[in-house]
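Design review, sub-item: ligand-bound model
Attendees: FS, YL, KQ
YL presented the inputs for the NAI complex:
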Amino acid sequence: MKILFYGAKDYDQQFFDKLAPQYPGVSIKFIEANIYEETASLAKGYDGICAFVNGDLGAPVIEELNRQGVRLILMRCAGYNNVDLDTAAKYGIKVLRVPGYSPEAVAEHAMALVLTANRHTHKAYIKCRENNFALNGLMGVNLYQKTAGIVGTGKIGLAMARICRGFGMKVIAYDLFPNKELDFLEYVSLDELFRRSDLISLHCPLTEETHHLINEESIAKMKDGVILVNTSRGGLIRTDDLIAGIRDHKFFAVGLDVYEEETDFVYEDMSERILQSSTIQRLLSFPNVAMTSHQGFFTEEALTNIAETTLQNAVAFRDGKELKNEVLG
Ligand code: NAI
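KQ shared the predicted structure:
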């Protein structure tokens, strides 16, 4: 079975190469180019392709993959909002993903962003390096005894709820399908969550329903001085409304691992380029915003699990076994 691995980074190759010998008969070709319309034809002669969150798997790309004879799309990530599932289904192309490879990796990063943005550790570090030991601009707030609101209590949301509980916070949550696993979790309506939370952490997937869930109207419902963190998908937040809210001093701190325009930049070194879009710079110009580049998943444990499950998905498809990680439209 031949798989073309798009957008390969050194770390991807390292973790897949380590496990590949355990999956004889699966051969992987790693290429740096990401998948988009112009590169889809490179998949000629491959049974499957492997892509990540920043790949373009819209209808034209899937049509091209179909023309090249590809039957399998292996997403080496949990999210699949960048895949046109209807088009894949139309051509009988299977889409498999890696659900829950390490919920704690993402939840721990969400809390790292909360702490960074709240206590300004990103600024304090630079100040200390410059021999500036003054504390002005570094004031934070305690999380202890505050209320954390978790939107989406799947695997990552529950891990974040446990972490917040560990900080001595009261934890409330909103989900379409409440989960009874954690007895300390109080489910409330989305409006109530906005109204009561001191910290709001987003962990629901990006869907038509959740697109721009955080907008002018929902921001207005939030407490003044709320902390907002998004490690899920950029499209959950209407960025212009967030910027307006930050300017109105609505937020005490904002932590973003994902943002709306990230697809063009994410995982690339753009430090020598003049960027044409200013949204990221505008966000970073605020002293209470901390940003990272979609690295929530990036731990050794997560990369090991991603490689293992992706290879298992490939073998299950090849052997005609049950596809337990199939994504259906
Ligand atoms: P999951 O599928 O276990 O949980 C998602 C939860 O959201 C479910 O409980 C579901 O019922 C709920 N949900 C769905 N629609 C909703 C709505 N309209 N309102 C409220 N809740 C809703 O997913 P998991 O593994 O917890 O991942 C969550 C998201 O995290 C993924 O969709 C992905 O976008 C993001 N992610 C980010 C990573 C990063 O590196 N920053 C890495 C992995 C995932």
